[in-house]
Amino acid sequence: MRILWKLVAAIVLCVAPILAQSDKPPSDSELAEITARGRMLAEYDQASWHATDAVQALKPAQGAVRRYIARKSATGWVVVFGRFSEAKDAFLTVYEATQGSNPKQFTVSTFDPPRPDTGFFFVAAKAIELSLQNLTLQKRPYNTYVIPLDSGQMYVYVLPAQTTADVYPLGGDTRFLVSADGSTILETRQLHKSILEVKHSAPLGKTPAGGIHSHVLTDSPEDTDVFHVLRQTHPLPEFVGTKDGVYVVEVDGKIKRVKH
Predict the structure, then answer these.
(1) pTM of the model
(2) CA distances from 154 to 55, 135, 176, 186, 258 (A)
(3) pLDDT at position 16 over 60
(4) 226 touches 210 (CB < 8 A)
(5) How many CB atoms are closer than 10 A to CB 184?
């Protein structure tokens, strides 16, 4: 996987060898589903970020919080911070951050003693731990995201964390489909292979037209391609080359096929 800051004409030339093999491309509805999941990841990331800032202002005791988990409700995002009980039969919530009138505003409730949860957050914590046990990670920070599905199952994403402002890691990410009780991995999908640290740059007086990378593991854009675009402070389109064609993820997360 590689990143180039080029114009569309150069993009098509770069991925031409990939197009030699052709399978049935993803449908418009499948692309829309990828966009929806990527947008949800971006929302989750923003909620976790601002909720973490609110909790850190309270100066938590060392070891009190070992994991955070976010969940979107009808009124906004709720992010809990805590740890497993000693018997690992509950998730002990120490802080609960609730979204206010805008996505950046969170109100924090503190629980002393910690509030035990055996519902969604406990199951999500089990699913995260199981997913991490089934990965070989590099020596760097990672973020986890849990997206519940209508079936009761959940997606767990493990993504390299951003460690430098305006430098966005792309790749090295995996999505797990986990059972509704958080105890079984039903499917493992490696989304990208190498990790690239992407920084917007261009020659003096020039503006980058967008990014480009090619997929070697899958034949369509991935949820995290959408997330990669939406998480940027100043989003740019991302062109994705696959053996089925070239796609562009627009700055709003929508995906279009631009080359067959």
Answers:
(1) 0.88
(2) 26, 17, 8, 10, 32
(3) no
(4) no
(5) 12
